[in-house]
Amino acid sequence: MTKKTFLIAAVLTAVVGLTFGFTTTASAFSASSYPAGYTSACTCHGPAATNPVATLNSNNGTTAMYTVSSGGTEWAVFNGVTRLAWHLGDGGQFSVPVGGTYTLYAVLGDPLVHSSQQGLGKTTVIPVAPHFTITATAGSNGSISPAGSLSATKGADVTYTFTPDTGYHVAAVTVDSAPVGGVASYTFTNVQIAHTIAVTFAPGAVSTYKITATAGDHGGINPAGDKQLAAGGSIVYTMQPAQGYRVATITVDGVSLPPTSTAGSAICSQGWYTFLNVVEPHTISVTFKLNLAGWFTVTPYAGEHGQIWMAQQTVLASDTAPAIVSCSIIPDAGYHVATLIVDGAPVTPATWYNFSNVRAGHSIAATFALDLLHFNITATAGAHGAISHAGSMVCTQGTDVTYTFTPDSGYHVAAVTVGGSSVAVASSYTFTNLQAAQTIAVTFEADPPLHFTIAASAGANGGISPVGSLSATQGTDVTYTFTPSSGYHVAAVTVDGSSVAVASSYTFTNVQAVHTIAVTFSRSAKISTALSFKSSPYTSYRGHKFVFTGKISPSSMRTGTRITIWIRKSGQAWRKLGTVYTNMYDNYSYTLYNGSRAHGKYYVRSKYAGNSVYASCYSPYKTVYIK
């Protein structure tokens, strides 16, 4: 079988049904497998060859389709270094997105075996979105905007508004010579051909009626929404199915109409509807359904390190036989499918995708990424602290992994080692762009002791030791002693502003904060006790008595100062005998009756209870004997 005979058989097989494996329709698309073009001279076809010719078949503003005449040779079309389509022999078609720049090469040899190819000629193909002229005119007593000729891009929407002069109204609007009624504006939607629009105006105001137009999914109606139409006017509604769809039903004032009809004030044809001589409100709605028949193309785009392969790129769908296009997404070794985008929307990355029940053109794009490895990070922590993710953790190549260190109370991070080497001490460490297995270890040590200042002060007539400011180590005990001057005593002690018990010293235990301590002193009273006896000194008999006399100083103390008398037998505790009061001369006396007191040695002393100025005190004791 010759190459041309095989080509014809393969094309016929593709039209009847989808059959995989025929080289006439199979395509493999890759951004890295092919050279930037075929530029070497050809000798076997003569010194020169005619450049291949690409004839535009269709351009919908998004995709352009071309038929190729290559002078009998094979051909291939490239976008930069990416081959988009090829054909064995003259003829064939290719489709490319509008807006790009493409190179069409005539090729000697099988385009699949690039080592035997030689360039015969090339042609640059630059498809652009087509433009169509819309011509707008307005009669007297009003205006149209925009006015004159306008170049509209294919597929664009263009709106015209009509502005009557004062005292006038829109009388009639015609679009492509067909009346559309006395509307205030008109929109050309999805412009596909050249158009004309004209408006005229009439004096005075006119009655208007509302016409409400709605469209279902997969298409639109023009004009859409609410329109106010002058009484007696006419308006044309155009049904605009989306690509791959067609009009299913048209409903006017709640009544479904057949595809083609003429009923008094209305004309309905496939794709448009006209209200004539409007004298009441109306509603119109349209629905759409799939256009089940036609040729449809699936356009692939593959990034570096992979390709998209399909047995047939362009398929024929009929009303009874839906078409299927299966795509194999093939990563290079060591790579995987990173993203998969179908008709502009991302889907789950996979190595296979089916377009089932194809009723429109589609696109599929894939990108590829390097397969990622996984590495272990082993983390350990010493005593008195912890590390996050302790132990062994599996991490993905290229990721960032952060470890945090948490010392126990009273401890801090002492050292951090990564891979056996010391790194800066911090509260955390991050492995960035992980590319290998790692280890991390952290140790902790006790915080150095803190120091707190204790400020000590003493009032007049005494001292405190140590005096002034002292730096005390945290947790230690610090003792302060108070030394009154002669004739004085400790009057008050305050610690951190609060009074504490009067004593000769004060100890701060387990210092944990700053402190203050202050001591003041007061003059001390003096008291003396004398013994006078009616019999021999220091000795008395049972039934007799002792007379004690004494004096308290200073003499400035008031009369009636209370003095208590205390006695203690040898080997026993002191106990109170009684109370006396000083006279005007600061003297006092007390008579001790022996009564039935036991024989023995006794000690006697007096006590001054003290006041706000003078501290309490005891006199020296006296020794007496009872026989």
What layout of secondary structure does this protein have?
Elements: H1 3-16, E1 27-30, E2 53-59, E3 63-69, E4 74-79, E5 82-87, E6 93-97, E7 102-108, E8 118-125, E9 131-138, E10 142-145, E11 148-153, E12 158-164, E13 168-175, E14 178-181, E15 185-188, E16 195-203, E17 208-215, E18 219-222, E19 225-230, E20 235-241, E21 245-252, E22 255-257, E23 261-263, E24 266-269, E25 272-275, E26 282-290, E27 294-302, E28 306-310, E29 314-317, E30 323-331, E31 335-342, E32 345-347, E33 352-358, E34 362-370, E35 374-381, E36 385-387, E37 391-396, E38 401-407, E39 411-418, E40 421-423, E41 428-431, E42 438-446, E43 451-458, E44 462-465, E45 468-473, E46 478-484, E47 488-495, E48 498-500, E49 505-508, E50 515-523, E51 526-532, E52 539-540, E53 545-553, E54 562-569, E55 575-581, E56 587-593, E57 600-608, E58 617-618, E59 622-626
Parallel strand pairs: 9-16, 17-26, 27-34, 35-42, 43-50, 52-59
Antiparallel strand pairs: 1-28, 2-3, 3-6, 4-5, 4-7, 7-8, 9-11, 10-12, 12-15, 13-14, 13-16, 17-19, 18-20, 20-25, 21-22, 21-26, 23-24, 24-25, 27-29, 28-30, 30-33, 31-32, 31-34, 35-37, 36-38, 38-41, 39-40, 39-42, 43-45, 44-46, 46-49, 47-48, 47-50, 51-53, 53-56, 54-55, 54-57, 57-58, 57-59
Q: How would you sum up the global shape?
A: elongated
Question: Can you summarize the main beta sheet?
Answer: 6 strands, mixed
The whole-angstrom Rg is 57 Å
Gap between N and C termini, in Å? 161 Å
Structural class: mainly beta
Average predicted local confidence, pLDDT: 80
Which regions have little confidence, pLDDT < 50, spanning 5+ residues?
Answer: 1-48, 113-118
Which strand-content bin applies to the residues? Answer: over 45%
Q: Care to count the β-strands?
A: 59
Task: Provide the domain count.
Answer: 6
The helix count comes to 1
Helix content: under 10%
